[in-house]
User: Fold Acyltransferase 3 domain-containing protein from Streptomyces prasinus.
Amino acid sequence: MPSRSPGETDGPPTRPHRETRTAPADGGALGKTRSAKPRDALFDNAKYLAIVLVAVGHAWEPLRGESRTVTALYTLVYAFHMPAFIIISGYFSRSFDWSPGKIKRLITGVAVPYIVFEVAYTFFTRWSDGEPDRSISLLDPLYLTWFLAALFIWRLTTPIWRALRWPLPIALVIAALATLTPSIGKDLDLHRTLQFLPYFVLGLSLKKKHFEMVRRREARILAVPVFAGALIVSYWAVTRMNYAWFFHKSSAEDLAAPAWYGPVMTLAIFGCSTVLVAAFVALVPRRRTWFTALGAGTLYGYLLHGFFIQAANHWHWSHNDWFHTPLGAVTVTAIAAAVVTGLCTAPVRRVFRAAFEPKMDWAFRRQTPAHGQDQARAAEETPVPTPAPH
Assistant:
């Protein structure tokens, strides 16, 4: 089950990586510096690699039509990178409850960034898409912001899912029913929220032992033929299947398919994506690497790289025939990976921290020390998921 959990190691023991955080200043309480739990390198490595795939997937979008290979790779990436982010988000949301501290963190870490970037992307796309009259609508998530709207809903409902006896089957039924309902509309991108819900609930259900299973040497060896076989199937399916099913943002009717396809594809894609996420996590390095620290900044890379993608598309870079050659596609891939890597670095995070992690102590009631110690670890570890194309 691909999702990352804190404190897991593989092979010889490594020196734990610790970092200090400033405790949330709950209602004016002293923000004393305290030592956080050791960050598990596996999860930071996985988040970084997943966000690179997000950026690369967006860069490949204009190249899909003229290359079956690029389309096959694009389909494969979309089959697991978003589910991986969501499963991880669910895993790190297990401790969420409706206590004041957790609600504060949900608002400042998810709701406020959603509003900030919904407005920012609206103004930016007025220029990039040539739509000067585009209006701001907080109910219709624009481009990458849908994930924050969905995460807000998923995390807010976490106590409900944790209380149910069979949460995953119920989430799968809801996702299947969503594929039968074209009338859901665009409000808060509920199609994506409901159809991706099973992955979040799966993450909530995972335990450390599930990650230990995919950390074994046998799992890493098996992951290689799994991805090789998935790529072959993806290449075969390019001319036979609508890869938009992996975006989880439409009903069966919207995809010109019979209604009964929806529930069937929901179960089939869930099984396929879960296996691929497990294989992905199995292949992720367990130890600290040069990019481990970047895993803490994936939300920055996620939300900021969209401005570069939109600007590049505004200047019609894909109209250059060279980018449609094998070497051109490789170059585009490298540039996308380099840009999103830079956006996850500490200097960028310092510049934009106020937009991503506002303290907003003035907006909340003063809490007692008991509430002030509320664990915000889950929200802080939230990765950024991969958006479906706009």
